[in-house]
Amino acid sequence: MEHFNTIMGTEIETAKIFLKNGLVIGIPTETVYGLAGNALDEDAVLKIFTAKNRPHFDPLIVHTHSIAGIERYTTDIPANARLLMERFMPGALTLLLKKKLSIPDLVTSGLETVAIRIPDHPLTLKLLQELPFPLAAPSANPFGYISPTTAQHVFAQLHGKIPYILDGGPTTVGVESTIVGFEGEEAVVYRLGGIAVEAIEAVIGKVRVEVNTGSNPKTPGMLKSHYAPMKELIFNDPARLDELRKSHRNTGIIAFDELLPGFNPDHQEVLSPLRDLGEAAKHLFAAMRKLDASNADVIYAIQFPDSGLGRAINDRLQRASVK
Fold first, then answer.
1. Residue 227 to residues 117, 230, 241: CA-CA distances in angstroms?
2. Can you state the angle between helices 151-158 and 277-293, rounded to 10 degrees?
3. 266 CB contacts (<8 Å, ≥6 apart)?
4. Which letter does DSSP use for residue 306 in this model?
5. 227: closest CA among 305, 313, 296?
6. Do residues 139 and 33 make contact, with C-beta atoms less than 8 angstroms apart?
7. I need a labelling partner for 199 at 20 to 30 A (CA). Which of 4, 156, 188, 213 fits?
8. What is the CA radius of gyration of the chain?
9. Which pTM value belongs to this model?
10. How do residues 203-220 score in pLDDT, each as one tens digit?
11. Residue in 131, 77, 73 with CA at minimum distance from that of residue 102
């Protein structure tokens, strides 16, 4: 694999040059940072899999700049999909739609559907508007590890593997996009994410939630073990929490609005003192990274309220706890 002197910057022209030359780069979105390459170029897409050490059976999300861009690469768009596009795009929503032949099978893992979205980040939207192709872009991290929410996170994990990281500052949502597909007329949420199920149902009515935990996913981000730190992460296990408290083991804590008693406060990450699930989602991955880099022996995460973005936070923590 080619070795690069990875640089970070804010120059869209530099990003365009690398992408047009078939290379992959880090890009900012409102959800997490992506590892982007030309979605129509199989060689570029292969570079994404190589840099991430990602299984080829895990499909990628395609990013474009407009609803017209989505129409260019998909077909048979359901009426409810159009309603969601008009309400939530650009934004943290990915739609699973029937793909046109221009999208390589490598992007979709051989499936007839493609996951596609319009990211809500000014730098990346401008970049997409100036490119003659869409970008395939999973999260910019080694496969299975915590997703990056700053350019520095990307650099720490992928320096030497990519030439450039477009630095758009910290992400504003902090968890991946919600993925919605359609089975006939029925809308199905396949991945919980930055748009709450309740918000989707307010637009199109009741949806089915089918969050996969298998090893052969139909959409991106559905593998059972995912988003995981290197250290053991224990999620919502009160008995284990009591054991950790009594053992005085060096434990990192991911909490919602207040410190947990009986543990070192310096090793606790309180995600939102105001109990704001949006703020908690924004800080989740950064907190996981901080504790993973600390001298804590193990990480314990509490369960968040199971509504709104709390469902997406719990989903990520559950997957991070699977080994």
1. 21, 10, 21
2. 30
3. none
4. S
5. 313
6. yes
7. 213
8. 19
9. 0.84
10. 999 999 998 654 345 666
11. 73
| Distance separating alpha carbons of residues 25 and 127, to the nearest angstrom | 12
Q: Which residues contact 70 (CB under 8 A, 6 or more apart)?
A: 64, 77, 85, 95, 97, 116, 118
- 276 phi/psi in degrees, rounded to 5: -100, 110
Record the tokens describing residue 314, joined without a space. 């719990």
CA 38 from chain centre, in angstroms, equals 19
> C-alpha 174: how far from its chain's center?
8
Closest Cα partner for 200 from 98, 94, 283, 113? 94
User: Which tokens go with 33?
Assistant: 């940072």
Average pLDDT over residues 311-323: 86
Q: What is the rounded CA–CA span in Å between residue 135 and residue 211?
A: 25
Length of the chain: 323
Q: Which two tokens stand for residue 81?
A: 């999909």
In which element (H, E) is residue 8 found? Answer: strand 7-9
Q: At what angle do helices 122-130 and 12-20 cross, to 10 degrees?
A: 50
Residue 208 identity? R
Residues 315 and 299 sit within 8 Å (Cβ to Cβ): no
The Cα-based distances of 142 to 45, 123, 154, 197, 217 in angstroms read 15, 23, 9, 28, 18
Phi, psi of 297 (to 5 degrees): -80, -30
Q: pLDDT for 34-80, tens place per residue?
A: 999 999 999 999 899 888 876 665 789 999 999 999 999 999 999 99
pLDDT, tens digit (0-9, with 9 covering 90-100), for 150-188: 999 999 999 999 999 999 999 999 999 999 999 988 999
